[in-house]
């Protein structure tokens, strides 16, 4: 029996040593340091249990103190990540698509990004961005505000009704405790989907069901889906069956294609809702009348994938930003007071926030930017080295994944003095280009930035004008990377109706 135990132990030890030796010999990034990692599992256990923002900060701290400009992380995503530390490097990595190209890892999770802006490169990206930018002109952004106002007003009324039904025992006044992420997700999803494509209500229900299916595919077991995609034989094993996922993908594809075709027929027949007030309508008009554009129009497949791309970006990260900004406003009464004073001074009709109102709300803009710096609605973006190259003095092999982790630069005292202080005033003057990375940087930066900010500002105007916000209990921060950056524990904000200035 003892001999068997010794044999098993030595076999495992030999296997482990062989693996470590193989990894050492084959790795092209051994010259870049990494935190201590588990054999086989690498850094994955840390990502399972720890706050992701704090985890990256803890990983980075010893290397930053040692004057290093990079470190390696492997959370079992493929390939291994080289994380930037030098504040000057994101401008190079994100601003030079000839040297660093976008990763296509999401294609391994779901097939609805392959032909859209999130995935295409070079001339195809330039072409699509030019065509899609017609949906984000000032005139179009102003039209989209109708959806933000209506959906926001409906939610505010529900909050008022809820507050009237409860009396808080600490302030002895009508108030309600709100799970802000849940309600903001509902707002952001509805605004995004209605702005992307106008449909009759019966068709809209099927459309939204399909889009929610996409988000479920993204959030449910992403690691294992990547594993199944990378190792083909795994899906044939009993635990690797992927039939339910494939069925869901087919249903989503069918539903979205039906919506596109329905919109096309509405435009051809000049039906109600066929005007160019949404993204899909603009794309289909380009197909039907190519004389108005100087590029090859988007195909139905490209429209489908961009529809999914914009929806995910527009509702997931928007709800994250709204949640963290509301949390920050509730946590800092002095900032909330100043913000409410500006809103009361600038906005004439809280139920109908205008494009002009948004442009004049300077302090609100500063608060949102500081929230995105401090809390980060999204945390990182990846690029692949298109060729062997150098970043600074460090050699980077072709195909290496480079990660720009926004929080490492947003909380860097060289870039933002006193980074641990929540201070909107730091954005009163323009910050250094490439230091604030909330919407990315360079040619692949977020095309929907203004759409998202307009919606966020419209909703926050209504919330701050109608309610005094406070925290009854401070939530434990355990931020997790999904699509946006969310807290594991729900963030509850106490809303107390306040007298509005009409």
TrEMBL record:
Out of the domains of life, which is the source?
Eukaryota
One matching Pfam family is p450
**InterPro entries the UniProt entry points to:** Cyt_P450, Cyt_P450_E_grp-I, Cyt_P450_sf, Cytochrome_P450_Monoox
* Bilayer-crossing regions: 6-22
Family (UniProt): Belongs to the cytochrome P450 family.
Gene3D superfamilies from the xrefs?
Cytochrome P450 (1.10.630.10)
Which cofactors? heme
* PANTHER family for this protein: BIFUNCTIONAL ALBAFLAVENONE MONOOXYGENASE_TERPENE SYNTHASE, CYTOCHROME P450 FAMILY 4
State the SUPFAM superfamilies in the record: Cytochrome P450
Kindly provide the name given to this protein in its UniProt entry: Cytochrome P450
Offer an example of a GO molecular function term for this protein: oxidoreductase activity, acting on paired donors, with incorporation or reduction of molecular oxygen
Q: What keywords are assigned to this protein?
A: Heme, Iron, Membrane, Metal-binding, Monooxygenase, Oxidoreductase, Transmembrane, Transmembrane helix
Q: Which positions in this protein are listed as binding heme?
A: 446
Organism of derivation = Clytia hemisphaerica
